[in-house]
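Q: For a teaching session next week I want to show students how multiple molecules come together into a single three-dimensional assembly. I've collected the sequence lines for a complex. Could you give me the predicted structure tokens for the whole thing so I can convert them for display?
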Amino acid sequence: MQQLSQNLSANLAALDRMFGPSADYYAKEITIYHCKAVILLFDGMASLDSLWTLLLDAASRQAPPVQPGQCCTGMQAYELILHDSAFPAENAPVEDMDELTKRLTAGMAVLLLDGCAKGIAFSVQGLKFRSVGEPSGEGNLRGSREGFADLLRVNLSLLRRLIRSEQLVQEAAQADTGMRTEYAICYCKNKADPAMVQRVRKTLAAAKPELLLDSSYFVPWLLPGKARLFTPVSYTERPAVAAAKLCEGKIVVLVNGSPSAMVLPALFCENFECLDDYASTAVFSSFLRILKYISFYLTVFLPGVFVCLAVYLPELIPPQLLYRIEAAEKATPLPLFAEMLLVMLILEVIREAGLRMPQSLGHSVSLVSALIIGDAAIATGLMSTPVIFVASITAIAVFVTPSLYEPATLLRLGVVLAVGLAGPVGLAGAFFVFLLSLSGTACLQVPYLAVHPFPQRPMAEDGVIRRNYRRLSQKGFNIWQRREEKECKGRRNSLFPHWR
Amino acid sequence: MQGQKKLSFSALALSVWTAALAESLEPGVSLRGMLLYGGLGALLLTGISAVLCVCWQQTAVRQVWLFAAVLGLLAELFRTATQAQSVCRQEFHSMALIGLLPLLLWAGCRIPLSGWDAPARVLWWFVLLGEGLCLAGIAGQMEWFHLLESDAVQLARLPRVPLYAEYLLWPFLMEETAPRRILFLPWLTFLAQVCLAAGICLVFGGTDYPEQELLRAWSVGIFSRMDALLLLIWLTCAVFRIGFLCAAAGELWKKATNCRKGAAG
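A: Of course. Below is the structure for the complete assembly, covering every listed component.
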């Protein structure tokens, strides 16, 4: 770590070596309090206007009287600016090149004085950033329309504006990457588990991602080891949702340059909840949640179950429907299982193409795919209508729970493959894999699935269905209760409590 | 994974229930005979289970018991796999279970015992749903007067009381987390057998029919053979039992080898 020198020329030479070729590097030599100095900043990150207004005006008005032939030393000027003036300077001085780089890349301006080995940072950020608009990925009818922006400090301010309490802690740090990306860990100190916060803090500090462009890059460090279908963390771009999660004792991780906040730990049931749930009546939101659960299970199992029933257990299908399926299948060359797999893969290709290509071409893709899938495939006799109908229902149903898109897609393909290869045994096996992957997932000792996977008292909490908000509010929810429930479960009604 | 917790009552109970449902009833044993002798058998097994759970703690013979327990569990595993394969072959014309078996055994070895708890709880709901549907399907065909028919001769025949490894080995598997109701595992088998016997008696008037016929008697309007659905649920439970017994055998094997090392040290 290179310390700043007392010699201004030496500091400038070192900085020239570091940033000299960069077009945005700005170093202006000035005289302040009759002492040679230099103002450093990155063009576009710090606002020159506000800098000159604040700094030079104030300096010229508050210049101390100096006797003829006598100059202020660098240290005297430093002390004057930092302690005896109205300059909006940062309290902590800049003492080394690393710190200097950190401040400059955060959009601050740094003043270096000749004869002083410390610099003074000024908060004159003038960064351009995307406005706080509504996130496109999380639709809501009621509640806040604000979404996180890309700048970490803006996002932190959005959270602070919602949780106006001393309990909210926002710890910022720099990740150990080449890009030195800044990230923040946010939690409510009266609700979050201190041991778990410490664990997250340590894990993120020890993480060495090559690049850090989103909070999700931290997941392999937070949840190391095995491959998993379900990831027990959730993401949101809404400050209101992040604030609600913080109030449940959860930990939110924000990364500079990304509007996506990672919330941990997450529960499986939270994928079926949204802000609107609490704004509408308990009965209606419960109805919607049940619909969401049904949609999710449909999207995972419907194609597999359809293939299984049609091929192996046709007696379970009502005769009229069976005749139609049979008639449609006779006209196609592929076996039902291969046909289903093909349609699902084509739908995935279309989805991916629609997502990645420019918006202006998106409509053309939709049109062409609708023609291919909806008409041409059937007309040429490559695919049957029942298969396309089932695949389309599942493709639409998955968007009811967008946060479960990845596991749902993989599971759906897995179930169809298992059924195609092993029939009813494959279906049973795939269902079991699904159960095991759900129940085997946990984050920060909080199980992803409820301790009692199906509600023993369905109206007891905010689960598949919920009570009205007034009753829910009487007994607040904290995520760490789930861990305690799990620990207590084993101790209850023990036959041999002291047996070892 | 869910930590180092032991398995729960639900997992053990589902395992026993799955085995009990696959157990064929002795032909000619009446419902009353089943209630009397089956109940007596369950009581006896509860007593034996309670006595043995204390005996297992004797460190002198613990290692021997543990190795024997592993063998017992593997025998149970083999029996369940055979039953499941038989259902697959007869009902679904599929030999896929043989191909799936290595995968199941691998999963059983990899997943700790506590990992089988949550799937068991979910499967219990499916079992209850299936049984409720079945009951609704045969409700119209039940004739209550069949219960009053004379079966004095048949009372003399003793029903077979199945013995499962879970009755005797739960102290090794659950240890300090064992709830009091674990002692009632034999009663679960008794309940399954009584339900089957009662269903057959009420629908057919005697117990000379195989249980499969009870499923076949079930028909719901447009669906011609819903018994396949119940068999599918049972098959899922059998898949669970195979994996669970494998995990249990693995756990006990570890304990036995640790015990041996401890004794040698």
